[in-house]
Specification:
The chain contains 2 helices and 4 strands, in the order βααβββ. It is mostly loops.
């Protein structure tokens, strides 16, 4: 997790454009790195994200009962979405498309 520098400017731009490229995410994600707490280093379906940080998430999509890959192509359209469980955030682009790559 990396802290955003000047998060208010970045947030304002995202509210207007909803595009990390236009809003220069790389210029804002230059702050302090936050280590992942040991209790968070495990497989689960919910991730704690601190405000004003850029977070990378490693995901394994496998069947729970036998740990085997899905019997279908998860990279095929229409795809999936990821979302925030804070209802107010859904109005602020916290529900987004997720493109699976092989």
């Amino acid at each position: 997790m990396q802290q955003l520098v000047d998060p208010d400017t970045f947030t304002s731009c995202m509210k207007q454009h909803n595009d990390t490229v236009i809003c220069n995410l790389d210029q804002h994600a230059v702050g302090a790195l936050l280590p992942v707490p040991e209790e968070e280093k495990t497989w689960k379906n919910v991730v704690k994200l601190p405000p004003a940080y850029v977070t990378s998430v490693v995901v394994a999509f496998r069947l729970v009962h036998n740990n085997m890959p899905y019997p279908f192509d998860a990279t095929a359209a229409p795809g999936y979405v990821y979302h925030c469980h804070i209802l107010d955030h859904e109005d602020n682009a916290m529900i987004r498309p997720l493109k699976m790559l092989p």
